């Protein structure tokens, strides 16, 4: 105090000290105001150095570990995947608030090392900024032109059901694995839209491409690849990473060959599919000298890869869950087939029939809900600082919208862990929509192929339940059919065989 009093004897020092004290006071006010504005960060378990919270997570089924943590820490919480900080959103209301009501703030994609390896920042699924906007806008517009979710694609799907039915018939009611034929059929729908033609199921090039793409989805969800995302320098020493890179290289090479063939026969006045339209737009940009055009070979190849990955595995996987669940619950299969026989009879099902098949429609929705194909969605990242649900989340924070917590939200579903088509039926047996039905995600990053996937699921499912009865292999009871999903980025059924008995 004596020193301060002594300094105050000098007028200039008194002025300087007053200014310093004023600035200090002003800084404290601002800091306090900033803290109040930002709020506190989401709670979560205390992380260990380097490992973060990995010891609390089952890397084979991280979505289950995160659901358990949400019971302790709430619907918005922080967890550390190694050194990486992630904010997890759990429950229908919280996920909807983020993805729909705060779509801009939560709308960017978090591009992990493995997803960068797969896409190089191009395409639709794992790009951001102008590249994402331009590619998504172009894809949506042109996929619609080629009939995605309309009559034009309905005809392609119906045609493909006929080819797949012939494959099922060849097994003559004997047990078989549905995986490959179903994936080939669904992949052919995308092929017809993207390339303008389908492939024979025995085409070795086609089979290899589909099999590699599906293997990649399984590998991406493996524990070793999750560790790679946290410590990318480990890549060259990981068997799964090397296999993934080899598969990607092979598929890119095959796609370039297919594009090259289409380029050689391109007629801008008669485009056969999505690739033709893209090549025409690319050619136009080159002629106009657009140096910064986003319509280049890399965006074309990785957009094709995205369309196949998003449009094949998820729909094919959902169909296989459907067939398995029908074999598991024959009384539900009975009701579906009774309704199809009564309403449609022996003719080919069409999309227009959906409104007259409420129970069948409810079963398809319940298959999607219980199958829970993409339990953690694709990772998002915040595009700016966000004050959300009383918490402050910094710009650039990775966010997991936990879709499994939406599809099995105990406050939204009467029996969330049970296969129960009544979730989608009212008291009069009419189909009813449910807000918490969110298998395609929501908001800016909602699946762009949702309308096509819904059409495929309805037409394939009704057509196959019309012609086949699905049962366990001889000597296996319904109770023995295992509903535990296999490990992977998407949740496929565990390896199994079924019998498809002809009903005709």
Automatic annotation (TrEMBL):
GO terms for cellular component: endoplasmic reticulum membrane. It comes from the Eukaryota. Keywords: Coiled coil, Endoplasmic reticulum, Heme, Iron, Membrane, Metal-binding, Microsome, Monooxygenase, Oxidoreductase, Transmembrane, Transmembrane helix. GO terms for molecular function: heme binding; iron ion binding; oxidoreductase activity, acting on paired donors, with incorporation or reduction of molecular oxygen, reduced flavin or flavoprotein as one donor, and incorporation of one atom of oxygen. It is found in: Endoplasmic reticulum membrane; Microsome membrane. Gene3D superfamilies: Cytochrome P450 (1.10.630.10). The chain crosses the membrane at residues 7-30. Residues 238-265 form a coiled coil. GO terms for biological process: aflatoxin metabolic process; organic acid metabolic process; xenobiotic metabolic process. Its cofactor is heme. Heme binds at residue 447. Belongs to the cytochrome P450 family. This is Cytochrome P450 2K1-like. It comes from Chanos chanos (Milkfish). The lineage of its organism: Eukaryota, Metazoa, Chordata, Craniata, Vertebrata. The gene is LOC115826809.
